[in-house]
Design goal:
Blueprint (H helix, E strand, L loop, with lengths): L1 H11 L4 E5 L4 E8 L6 H21 L16 E11 L1 H16 L4 E6 L1 H10 L19 H35 L6 H13 L2 H25 L5 H40 L2 H7 L4 H39 L4 H11 L2 H27 L5 H33 L2
Helix pairs in contact: 3-4, 5-10, 6-10, 7-8, 7-10, 8-10, 8-12, 8-13, 10-12, 12-13
C-alpha cells in the first residue's frame, strides 16, 4: 500500500519550476521539488533568464531607486516557495543552490518564504550545507561524434567483460547443480518451460508454417524452369531443418521469452527482492538464473522440433499444389535424400541459442537500476544482445559444420 501510493505520488508530481514576478521582484517556486521531478538543466536555464532580466533592468536603472544597490544589482529580491507542492532533501538543496547563485551574481535576498514542512527541512539542512560538495549549475556539455563513438566502444567492451564474468559465475553454479541437483527450484523450471514453450509454441508454429509456404512458393518457379520439381524436397529439407527453423525459433524466443526474463528479474530487483535473497544467504544464481536458463534450454529445442515439422508441412502443401509433388513422393524423398544430420544440426543449434538468449536475459535483468526506465532499457538491450549472439553463433556453426562436412 505504502509503495503504491508513494510511486503514484512520484509519477503524478509536476516538474519543479521557477518564475520571476517583475512587479514585486519575487522568484516564485512551484511544482514538486523532489529528486524525481527536478531538472537541473531547466532550473539553470530559468535562473539565467531571470538573471538576464535583473541585469538588464539594473543597468538601465540609475535614478537612485531603492531596488538597486551601489554595485548595480537588485537588493530587494525574494524567494516565494509557498506554492511548492512537496519537497525532499534534494529539493531543499536545490533551493540553497539558488540562493548561492543569487549571491554569486550580486543579487541580494530579502526574504525566503516556505511552507512549514519545507521551512523545517530547510533549517535542518542549512547548517550542514557546507559539508556537501558544492556543484554549481552548469549546462551539460555536448560530446563530439568521436567522443560518442569512443564511449560506445568502451561501453561495449566493458559489457562483454561483464557478460564473461556473469558466464563464469553461471558455470560455477552449474557445477554445484550437477553435484547437488536437489537444491534447484524445479517448480520454477517447470514454470519457465510452460511460459517459454507451451505458451509460445503457437507463435513459432504459425510463423514457421508461413515461412515454409513462402520459401517453397518463391522457389517453385526456379525448379519448374529446369524441370527439377522434386528437388524442392531437398532444398526445403536442408534450408528449413538446418537453418531457417532454428534461427526463426530462436529470434521468436529472444523477443518473447528473453524480454520477459529481463523484465521479471528487473522488477524483482527494483522491488529489492533480489537484495532480500542475498541478505538471507540465498544465491541469486541458483534461485533465479539457473532455473530460467535450464527451462529455456529444455523448451526451445522442443519448439524447434515442432517448427521443423510444421514448416515442412507448409512446403509440402505448396509442392503438391504448384509443383505436382504429391505428399507420398514428398515424404519418400525427404526420408531418402534429406540426411538426418540436417535435423540434428538444427536441434544442436537450438540448445546453444536457448542458452545465449536466457543468459543475455538474466544478465540484463540483473543490471537493472532502481527505476522503471532502466527496466525498459535493459529489456530492449537483452533482445538486441540475444539476436546479435544468435546470428554470431549461427555463423560460427556454419563454419564448424562446413569443416566437419555435415
Amino acid at each position: 500500500m505504502y509503495k503504491e501510493s508513494a510511486s503514484r505520488k512520484l509519477i503524478n508530481a509536476d516538474k519543479a519550476q521557477m518564475t520571476f514576478d517583475k512587479a514585486r521582484d519575487v522568484i516564485n517556486l512551484s511544482g514538486a521539488w523532489l529528486w524525481s521531478s527536478i531538472d537541473e538543466e531547466l532550473l539553470f536555464k530559468q535562473l539565467n533568464e531571470i538573471n538576464c532580466i535583473i541585469s538588464s533592468r539594473s543597468s538601465g536603472n540609475r535614478d537612485g531607486s531603492n531596488n538597486v544597490n551601489h554595485d548595480g544589482g537588485i537588493s530587494k529580491i525574494s524567494l516565494d516557495g509557498t506554492a511548492i507542492d512537496c519537497a525532499d532533501t534534494t529539493g531543499i538543496y536545490q533551493i540553497v543552490k539558488i540562493v548561492k547563485y543569487l549571491q554569486q551574481h550580486k543579487i541580494g535576498l530579502l526574504k525566503l518564504e516556505l511552507n512549514e514542512q519545507e521551512k523545517l527541512l530547510f533549517d535542518r539542512i542549512l547548517p550542514h550545507i557546507n559539508q556537501i560538495e558544492d556543484k554549481p549549475y552548469a549546462p551539460a556539455k555536448r560530446r563530439s561524434f568521436f567522443s560518442n563513438v569512443g564511449k560506445s566502444l568502451f561501453d561495449g567492451w566493458f559489457t562483454i567483460l561483464d557478460l564473461l564474468n556473469f558466464f563464469g559465475q553461471f558455470c560455477f553454479n552449474l557445477v554445484r547443480f550437477i553435484i547437488s541437483p536437489k537444491h534447484l527450484d524445479w517448480s520454477e523450471v517447470v514454470r519457465v518451460i510452460n511460459d517459454a514453450g507451451v505458451k509460445g509454441l503457437w507463435v513459432a508454429s504459425l510463423l514457421s508454417f508461413l515461412i515454409g509456404i513462402t520459401l517453397a512458393y518463391q522457389m517453385a518457379p526456379q525448379f519448374t524452369t529446369y524441370g527439377a520439381n522434386v528437388y524442392i524436397v531437398n532444398f526445403l529439407g536442408i534450408a528449413l531443418l538446418k537453418e531457417v527453423s532454428p534461427l526463426l525459433t530462436a529470434v521468436i524466443v529472444a523477443g518473447r521469452t528473453g524480454a520477459a526474463i529481463t523484465a521479471e528479474i528487473g522488477t524483482q530487483k527494483v522491488q529489492e527482492e533480489i537484495d532480500a535473497l542475498q541478505t538471507m544467504g540465498i544465491s541469486r544464481m541458483q534461485k533465479i538464473v539457473l532455473p530460467k536458463i535450464i527451462g529455456v534450454m529444455i523448451a526451445t529445442p522442443l519448439i524447434t522440433a515442432v517448427a521443423d515439422m510444421v514448416s515442412m508441412l507448409g512446403g509440402a502443401i505448396v509442392a503438391n499444389g504448384s509443383l505436382s509433388v504429391n505428399y507420398e513422393l514428398f515424404l519418400y524423398r525427404m526420408q531418402t535424400y534429406v540426411a538426418l544430420s540436417n535435423y540434428a544440426c538444427g536441434i544442436v543449434k537450438s540448445f546453444v541459442f536457448a542458452f545465449l538468449i536466457s543468459l543475455a536475459g538474466c544478465f540484463c535483468g540483473l543490471n537493472v537500476k532502481g527505476n522503471a526506465n532502466s527496466i525498459g532499457e535493459q529489456t530492449t538491450k537483452s533482445v538486441v544482445m540475444g539476436i546479435i549472439l544468435i546470428v554470431l553463433f549461427d555463423a560460427i556453426f556454419a563454419v564448424i559444420f562446413k569443416t566437419m562436412g555435415v
